[in-house]
Amino acid sequence: MAHAYTPGLKVTNRMTYSVIRMLPIKGDVMVKVGDNVNANQIVAATYMPGDVYPLNMANLLAVPPKDVASLMLRKEGEKVEKGEAIAETAGLFGKFKKKYNSPYSGTIETVSDVTGQVILRGPDIPVEVKAYVTGAVTAVNPEIGCTIETDVAFIQGIFGIGGETCGPIKFAVENCDEAISANNISEDMKGCVVIGGARISVESIEAARKVGVVALIGGGMDDQDLRDFLGYDLGVAITGSEKKGITVIVTEGFGDITMASRTFDLLKKFEGKEASVNGATQIRAGVMRPEIIIPLEAGDCEEETEQVGGYLEIGLPLRIIRDPYFGMLGTVSALPSEPHVLGSGSKARVLEVKLSSGESVIVPRANVELIEA
Amino acid sequence: MTIDLENINVILATDCGSTTTKAILIEKVDGTYRQTYRGEAPTTVEKPFANVTIGVTNAVTEVGELAGRQLTNEDGTIKTPASDSDGCDMYISTSSAGGGLQMMVAGVIAEMTAASAKRAALGAGAIVMDVISSNDKRRPHEQIQRIRELRPDMILISGGTDGGTTEKVVQLAELIAPAKPQPRFGSEYEMPIIFAGNKMASGEVEATLQEDWIDLAVVENLRPTLEQENLGPARDKIHDVFLEHVMAHAPGYDMLMDWTDADIMPTPGAVGNILQTIAKKENINVVGVDIGGATTDVFSVFDETFNRTVSANLGMSYSISNVCAEATMPNVLRWVQFDMDERQLRNRVKNKMIRPTTIPQSLESLIFEQAVAREALRLAYKQHKEFATTLKGVQQQRTVGDTFSQQTGGNTIVDNMKLNLLVASGGVLSHAPSMNQTAMMLIDAFEPEGCTNLAKDSIFMMPHLGVLSAVHPEAAAQVFERDCLIYLGTCIAAKGLGKEGKPCFSWTLSGDVATSGTCNFGDIELIEMGPKETATIVCEPARGFDLGAGNGKKVTHEVCGGTVGLVIDGRGRPLGLPEERQQCQQTIARWVENMALYKEMEEAVVSA
Fold it and tell me: Which of B319, B355, B365 has the highest number of chain A CBs within 10 A, making it the mutation to test binding with A?
């Protein structure tokens, strides 16, 4: 039989995590190989070329394009201030000259004698890249960036919003099946990565944001709550750039769904420790899932949990990811090779799942994901 | 590479989609090429695999196991040549994985050269991220900002007819040069820019775009005169650049390119190839649709003019949430004959979006998914009709006789009354448990008028055959004829609106099936008519209805049957549904029953 491949999200108590921190354009890398860096430390910085303002100088001065260059008071490469004259017409007998004052500060980049257009470049924009995770610099790509490596406990979520942040882990609930409400959020959670159990409500996100929680993590959330929080309907799952003042991650999916106990327990083990969190999710073209990274210290989780491959085998634990059994956990109990007629009438390859309740159900192979033991 | 076509007995073809990699096996059986086995596996362009060939090997292994033929070597590579029991003689592939080919295009006038440039890019199989033009109502600095934000794989610049404006074309180049868009493959990637505009401006454009991060290619003008489009050279260049630059940077594609015996083609480009071939061979007007997880492609050939559109955010998995947002949930739910909890549905839609490879297990889930598909198809076809127009900007000579029928350029060339064949492909249409469901989704979304044949791509084979037709036309033609299209039947539909229950048209069938009846407005019925059966239908429409000969005029059509049969559709055009929810549910329930949409499903599940 062909291997039945099924995707799964990574949740592990120990792995070596490596992250490349790159500048969008060349600049200065401020660390060297062997340096130990903190998550909030700036490791590279540069200046992005500023915004571009095209000025149709031929029209503005009412002259032919080829004359523009000779009428420029500031030449290519020269800096100009807002309000400063940058071009002037010859006038009539030296009189009635017409000046053009720059509407922006910046540098004259080009002057075209074909179109009479002047390209004015605004001031450079500073760009800083932080380490994101606490660890050691293992490689430096001069002028571009560096690689940071460290041993971590790693949890991949299924969906998130908001970008990179970090803070100590704090729990808002006792159990993984407990939904998080606004009442679970307290002032002492400021700057923390707060863990809930089951559903995150919009009220809890708003309360968390209000007290300055940097990230809120739970099992699931209602799409309606997401819409209420964002203020718009999320059409395409490309997230991470939301500027909402908080990163939100769900580990299991949409709806009232309990966080997998192994995820909850793993986070519990690291309560109080610093975690790096990124809500960026991209489902198309180079899938990116949200992540929670907890750098390990000496003595933490010496033994690595077994990594599960991407293939279905009898006995492996899994989660059902589509209705009518959405969110249920179980183990593979049979892998019939013949296609099976589903309730929808479609024929598909299926597997038999023994649910945690003891009941056995037939599910399409496409509707399960492996979870780690 | 020279291939001895005489000795090709086993052909392996894959299509690497954004979600699934599909592999088919074509074998010479009794001297004729036939498609014999099919397999699929999830596409593996993403981490942790980040190598498309793993998914290819998995899909090919599945085909091999079903065929009892070892098609891969131990290291996962494709085994060639074929012997009696293993390997294949030729391996070909198409691809839309990793987001396909993403382009930005620019032209001087949005409705003229920029529209032609967009047509060239879409025809080559690209997703057009944005169209920049001198009159797109954005200020230059906003255009530059937009170019900076995009991550295109390639840029196409057109503009100016030959001998026309130079200044406006150079201005476009002047927007792109300082914007320096960051390609998604990293800063080392040289951005390919194709200039296909006014040949008199090419020198100045070259001078403006003389930057170390640009790889500029100049080809013939794609709009040399306002009356003429010349899209071929630009499309060919896009394809070359796609192979040289884009494919080479996608994970694992360098290996895949080594494995294939012909150039890898973008999937939509391959589908376009095969549809144009059919339209030309049969001398018909064709519309084809491929609804995928992320995008919906619509192809049309009307009077030999080919058009393709990609609705980038209308799809059934990655983009399903966007379909619901764009169409609105009430519009989706109008196709469902029972009540559903909207809050729960919203969660289901999002769960499908974040786990795109799942399939509906329950009947309720299937009905909802097909309702979403109707809306995705409807919106995609609407976009296609708006795009597939006659050339704008063409001067027309008019006489006094034209006073009351003035036609300006830019009218849609898509005419449902002239449409002969509607072809469906893509998961939700091809894999629908019943072909009646496929036919009904097509009719509801596309609203064909008059007499239209309906077909589906049996197992989504058109991309494979599109690339095969480029290397082995004979094999492609044979497989297309025998195994690719499954004819669902014919739809006879009246254009016009009337009063519910009043006569719409009467009809008489003679030939392999002989019967007659009257179709009332608001009704749809299904006449049994097998795949090999043909008949002549004479329709007499009531006043206010048109079946192809004009308002209220009698018309005769030759019809052929199929796996579904003959659909007599008196629901009128444009198709409307009662606004009141309960009444709407009753109407849908009646149509569902008349078309026997889910009856077989219930029976199949019970017997299983």
Answer: B355
